[in-house]
Specification:
73% of the residues lie in helices and 0% in strands. It is mainly α. Helix 3 packs antiparallel against helix 4, helix 10 packs parallel to helix 12 and helix 11 packs antiparallel against helix 12.
Length: 295
Amino acid sequence: MWNIILDALIDSLKVLALIVVVYVLLALLEKKISKRIENNHKLNPLIGALFGLIPQCGFSVVASDLYLKRHITMGTLVAIFIACSDEAVPIFLSNPHKILMVLPLILIKFVIGFVVGFIIDFIYTKSTKDVKHHHEECEHEEEIHVGCCHHVIEEEKHESKFHEYFFHPLIHSLKIFAYILVVNILFGLLVYFVGENSISSFLENSSYFTPLIAVLVGLIPNCASSVILSDLYLTNCITFGSCVAGLICNAGLGFVILFKNKKNLKNNFVILGIVAFVGLIVGYSLNLIFGFSVL
């Protein structure tokens, strides 16, 4: 029993060592990226999808904030949500056996993200017109945007560089470490008490439903959902297609910020529906191509 907890702790600490470095580096770029994606440009869905690949759930929060303030289009927001990998990339990189799967993961999410984003902006022209009109009226006044841990993205006179570039990334990394540790312990206990053969048999019998289940997990507005999906795939519990389906729908706390605005609930549900639908289509398509078996 204690061996399970010890193994889970060691595996989780390995991930922690990597993500602390990643998030400190990202803190240095966060402000520049948030400014770049709000510029009114026809290529913004492509730019949004590119920045969405950066493994940090804070960008989906910033994107929702920018969308609600009419600084980016609906297509750009959806492109960022779909491309957003949240905590999955660092977790994949920490696993030497499946580290190469990072490349197809980010490539699929990037291509799907900007293609769907362009289609939405082409069809839903009102969003583009609203952004253009807002930029003309607001004269690009300075606005404050909030990151995933509720810290202000823009420079603060009263906040030290230590807090901005080390403390916030460290706190975020420790939160992810806690999620990973809990998930690893639970998986270890599940295998210990239920048995690997029983789990494999259950997964084989329910393999056709795993993309749908993964999408539902991905829609949970929390960083933990990407941790769960990544660990499920890395431990051969779900297929790559199911993992991608869930991660397409995973936008961290982005949907929480989006649904705080009660004035435009119809558009919010449309965005949610598009992301979920795309996740299902991509997940089942990949499973049909590569098979539904996880073993």
